[in-house]
């Protein structure tokens, strides 16, 4: 009886080991979080839907394997609006990797730039700047210790001696994990269907937000509602966020990496919000601060120049009205521009495209530029008074004490 029981347990133990080994093999072959870096096979593991829930983990490893010459930094506006594989990028600047991170400000961009710049020779950095991510920015350490330990260098530029251990932990945690098994199954299913969120050259392909737009028939979703108004109302520019931009500039100048900064375009709806909530002066002062940073003399021996473009204006793109079926060509909502407009941005900052779109900012041109946008605003209110007034009506309905 004892012998039979031992044999029974042995068989079940062996079956358990084999079962666990199969699950581990599945996780390794599918590699849903792209930690291991196994080849991506179409129809099997090429699509990576985990991009929407594990962006920090995915991009920390994927960008190193991509070995880019150009990286894109920013928030979801860059992630959704700028295509790293766009034909507008010249061959000398390729490969391009979209290293934007949804919902995070300049500090996160700085840390990821340090990470990739310490491992490869970058030629160009393009960074989109969103005013709302400079307002009362939260302390970036809330991302947790794993975020910092996963990067190649520390914030002061010293080698991160914990990175190798963090990679080992990431490999073990994403290999021997039931959560990973679940993600592997989701990944397999997504590849069979051929439709899911995905990451290609850092691009967010078929993101949940795009699916939401598709479900609404592609209709323009104006965000001049309570969420956007409360986002700007009573907020001030965070010195920490500005310091991170300064650190990015210094890093690029020190390593002789070309740097192009651009202030993201936002729809006229949101520009009107900035004015109605009393943030217009803060908006202009923020631009002044960016110009001051971009105009600082580079370190001795550096010949790198920093370009700063401003696309936040009342122009033919931002003043577009929804069509009869409520769709728009240039914007997805008041904050997120479409990839079509993203292409126009890329062409413009690289010396081509629509010469009437955007403007280079400098200490000499800034005041004239700010006055020109104010004139654009006045003209917009004359030509489209109803669209301007609806923002004010909404604001008054939210805050009854507003006159």
Structural class: alpha/beta
Tally of helical runs: 15
- What order do the strands of the largest sheet run in, or round the barrel if closed? 2-1-3-6-7-8
Average pLDDT works out at 87
CATH fold-level assignment: Rossmann fold
- Computed over alpha carbons, the radius of gyration is 24 Å
Net shape: globular
Q: What's the CATH class, please? A: Alpha Beta
Number-wise, the strands total 8
Strand content: 5-15%
Helix % is 40-55%
The largest pleated sheet is described as: 6 strands, mixed
Overall tally of structural domains: 1
List the helices and strands in order. HHEHEHEHHHEEHHHEHHEHEHH
End-to-end Cα distance, whole Å, is 90 Å
If classified by CATH, what would the architecture be?
A: 3-Layer(aba) Sandwich
Summarize the structure.
The protein is built from 15 helices and 8 strands. With 403 residues, the protein is an alpha/beta fold. Strand 4 (198-200) and strand 5 (203-205) form a beta hairpin.
């Amino acid at each position: 009886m004892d012998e039979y029981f031992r044999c029974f347990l042995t068989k079940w133990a062996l079956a358990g080991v084999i079962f666990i080994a199969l699950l581990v093999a599945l996780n390794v072959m599918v590699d849903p979080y792209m930690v291991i870096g196994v080849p991506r096979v179409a129809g099997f593991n090429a699509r990576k839907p985990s991009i929407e829930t594990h962006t920090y983990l995915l991009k920390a490893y994927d960008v190193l394997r991509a070995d880019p010459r150009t990286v894109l930094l920013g928030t979801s506006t860059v992630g959704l609006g700028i295509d790293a594989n766009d034909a507008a990028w010249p061959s000398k600047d390729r490969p391009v990797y979209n290293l934007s991170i949804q919902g995070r400000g300049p500090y996160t961009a700085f840390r990821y730039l340090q990470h990739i710049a310490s491992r490869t020779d970058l030629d160009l950095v393009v960074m989109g700047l969103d005013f709302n991510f400079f307002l009362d920015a939260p302390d970036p350490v809330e991302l947790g210790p794993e975020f910092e330990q996963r990067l190649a260098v520390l914030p002061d530029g010293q080698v991160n001696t914990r990175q190798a251990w963090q990679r080992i932990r990431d490999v073990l945690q994403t290999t021997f994990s039931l959560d990973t098994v679940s993600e592997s199954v989701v990944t397999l299913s997504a590849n069979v269907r051929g439709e899911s969120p995905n990451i290609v050259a850092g691009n967010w392909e078929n993101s949940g937000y795009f699916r939401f737009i598709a479900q609404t028939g592609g209709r323009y979703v104006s965000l001049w509602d309570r969420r956007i108004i409360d986002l700007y109302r009573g907020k001030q520019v965070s010195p920490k966020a500005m310091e991170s931009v300064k650190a990015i500039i210094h890093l690029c100048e020190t390593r002789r990496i070309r740097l192009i900064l651009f202030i993201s375009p936002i729809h006229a709806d949101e520009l009107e919000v900035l004015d109605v909530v009393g943030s217009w002066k803060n908006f202009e002062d923020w631009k002044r601060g960016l110009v001051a940073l971009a105009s600082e003399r580079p370190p001795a021996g550096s010949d790198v120049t920093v370009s700063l473009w401003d696309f936040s204006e009342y122009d033919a793109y931002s003043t577009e009205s929804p069509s009869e079926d409520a769709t728009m060509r240039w914007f997805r909502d008041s904050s997120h521009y479409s990839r079509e407009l993203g292409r126009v941005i890329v062409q413009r900052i690289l010396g081509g495209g629509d010469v009437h779109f955007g403007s280079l900012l400098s200490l000499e041109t800034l005041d004239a530029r700010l006055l020109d946008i104010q004139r654009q605003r006045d003209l917009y209110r004359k030509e489209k008074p109803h669209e301007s007034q609806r923002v004010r009506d909404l604001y008054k309905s939210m805050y009854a004490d507003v006159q």
